[in-house]
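Dear colleague,

Thank you for sharing your sequence with our group. We've completed the structure prediction you requested, and as agreed, I am returning the results in plain text so they can be pasted directly into your records. Please verify that the sequence below matches your submission; if there's any discrepancy, let me know and we will rerun it promptly.
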Amino acid sequence: MDLADAVFSSSGLQILLFTARFNPSTFPGATDAERLALVKRMHRSVFATTNRMDEVLHYVLDMLER
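Please find the predicted structure tokens below.
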């Protein structure tokens, strides 16, 4: 998320997260307020998240169209 925030802050571009498992609303060891802040950061600086290669291709094409 720090990298996504840095990219968004410097260029205004959102990134695509291709991860095995990432759900900020269930982040272990975080308080509810920290989880909510992480979700808000993600919605601001991340275009999409997926763990499927076929979806990556669709997201990349969608990002290129914009």
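Summary note from our side: The chain has three helices and two strands.

Kind regards,
the structure core
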